[in-house]
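Hey L., structure's done. Input below.
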Amino acid sequence: MIRYLPKLGSQLWELKCQTTFDTLEEMKETLARQMTRYKHFIGNDTVYTPGQIMLLALRDRDPLTGWKHYCRIVLDGMVLGHCGE
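Output:
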C-alpha cells in the first residue's frame, strides 16, 4: 500500500488530504491524469504520462509520519507531494 500526501503548503491540510493507492503505478497514473486535466483546464495542451513522474528518495523512514521509503514526487520540475509505505 502506497500513501500519498499532496503538497498544499499546510502540513495539517496535507495530512487531511492523504490518499492511499494499492500500487505505485496506480498512484503515478492517477497523478498524471489529474495534472493533465488541470493543464487542459487552464488552457495548456500538455499531456502527462506516468513515466514522466519521478520519485526522489528522501530518507528511509520519515520521522513525522513513520512511513518507510519516503520519497518526493516530481513532475515537470514541480513537486506534487510525497509518498511512502
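Residues 57 and 71 are 4 Å apart (CA to CA). The first strand starts at residue 2 and ends at 6.

-- N.
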